[in-house]
Description:
The chain is of the alpha+beta class. The chain is built from 16 helices and 33 strands.
Amino acid sequence: MKTFLKLFFLTIICISLASCGSSPGDRSGNIAPTTPPPPPPPPPPPVNYDTTEYRNNYGLDQINAIAAYDNGATGEGITVAVIDSGIDVDNSQIVANIHPDSINIVTGQKSDLNDVAGHGTGVAGVIAAIRDPSNNTNVNTQGVAFDAQIMAINTASVGSCESADGCSFFDSDIAAALDYARVRGVKIVNISLGGDEFNSPVLVNAYRRAVEAGMIMILAAGNRDESDTELDVSQPERSGSVAWADWANGQIIVAGGVDATSAFWDGSHRAGEIAKDVFLVAGGEDILSIGIDENGDEAFFLWSGTSFAAPHIAGAAALLMQAFPNLDGKQVADLLFSTATDLGAVGPDIIFGRGLINIEAAFQPQGASSIAVRTAAGDTQVVALESSVLLGGNAFGGFTSFSDGLSNSMMLDGLNRSFRVDLGQQIFDRGQNIQLGSLVESKRGSRTSSLQLDQSTKVNFSWQEDRRFQEVEEQYFSHQNNARNRYQGLRMKLTMSMGNEQNITFSQGLSLKETLEDYDQDEFLSIGKEDFMALVGRDKSQNAILGHKLNSKTKFKLLLGRSGQEWQEYNLKSDSYVMMVRVDHQLFSSANFGLDLGLMNENGSVLGSLSDGAISLGKGATTAFINGRFDMAFAKNVNFFAKASYGMTNVTAADLSLVEQIDNLTSGSFSIGITANSFLQQGDRLSFAVSQPLRVMSGQANLSYAASRNYQTDSLSFIRNQASLSPTGREIDFELAYRIADLFGAQIDFNILHQINPNHNRENPDNTGVLIRFGSVF
Length: 778
């Protein structure tokens, strides 16, 4: 018989080692030929915005305009008023984007709109020249917001642009142009004019009305003239003084120029102390844009001046207003200021002001982000993204399907802008495949003592000590070693045996399993460590057990336990309470059967998973579970055992979460194995087991999340979906353990553990661990 058992164990070992080389795929060994389904059609390739015409104006890439295009923003539906010398009404590069309300404000005639100087055309081109990637001439370019509409308002004095001194503009006409744009709902105005004189009261009042209407205005800082001194160019021209007036509310931006290297262009007026908080820069030297040649024909020119820095900023504002229609002029201006790339001295400085506009940064979430959730009453409320986290319990296997269901959620930033966010990134896995630390620790410093009170009463007391850091603790932390800390850190078990086959056990700092069975862990690394009792762990634990022997074959135990867990990083806590009845019955001399019926209540967790915020699984859960055990000695010193558990969990829904409800949540675990004592020599022990840790068998999370947003009505459209809570894989553990009880006075334990689909995740590679332990009592 002993020879047969040795052959049996050798066969099992070979099977176990063979499995170590297997892959996480088909474990059956059967290869069935299948015809793969046809692949789905490939998605259309993304639009390539990084074209020659995009690169031809370095100012576009300098402000990261392509980030807006990749997010679907091109300026479509947005009108930018350009108060200037008019526009070339027949220019093929912009005619499609000329707003029908464009006008000559001086004559009041649309027929007088045409630009004879070319300046207004060049400014408008920087904002909204069309995108024409098929044009491979390498001389064309596009506007920042190439689908925006230009409301060109010609404010040049009649006949002035044909004079030797060039176009001239009266404050009263600029004021009329501002009012014209305002009453027609325009929110962005570019004024690349400038002047050394202060604005007239008429124009100042027009600016005031525009600010009150929520408009954003961009003014050129001014260019260096031959007669200008360094003092003259140390701050913007006087015509920009409205920008730093208190009533301007930050909605009037002054634009300075930089060159292709982002160095300050020496032809530009600087921010100065007076304007540094409302001053931004963009490309202003050799900017490629459209214009008119000496024959009146359309052409491309390299323009220099702050007049061409300003429209880069106006175009950026158009992109933002299209992408985020909820923003007003004040919010757009603040966003451009706060996300600008800081150049020069740190913070707002007297040269660059707030810095170089950065469209990519402006398209990123700003401020405190939140997730919109729907209440049971149908109302919409927001939950902070920062607090929306989940620390997964091992039974869920990483929440793969649940995470996929949250991968395209809607987030609101501090400006109430909508973004897509992968909330699956807020789900964290405990990631503990083989927990060797607690197993080794359980053997360290264990002490026991007993006291016979009388003939029928005996007290057994066991506790754990760890003196590795005692010297450090006494020297540096003794002042913190108060009674409360000592009590919470104590690990002990007190058992009182009384007459009439009764005993009472109390424990502190031990898991329910350790209290129920032996303080020391058994020889396995995996078996029985992840059933329902494992959810009542060591942290903050107190347990009580009342045992009674009903007759010679049947024992009864009543268990009450409590433990807690804490995720300090996110200040999440939970408490678990369990009540369980255990019955063990001897079927016959060599076989025993046991049954547990239990009820576990969790406050703040669901099967050990801590969660909060928009991805909270629930306030807590109640699990009814049953455990079954069977063991039988079928030969001398050889024992077979099997364990299985099954539970049904009811989850209490969270008040504010994308998870409205969890249905049909069931879970279970099993283990089966064989042990042989005195197998190779007297006192040794050889064991082999196969087990599955606690795993969710079924369960669905009913999700309700915002799928789209109507900015016009500021309303969110929610849809419902279901996400499976079952893991994608099934962890199966194969473990071989061998113990030598006495080798020169020491106990030696060998463990080989191989895990398939660790943590119930089929994407995880198989995991193998080897542990050798030496222990001695002295």
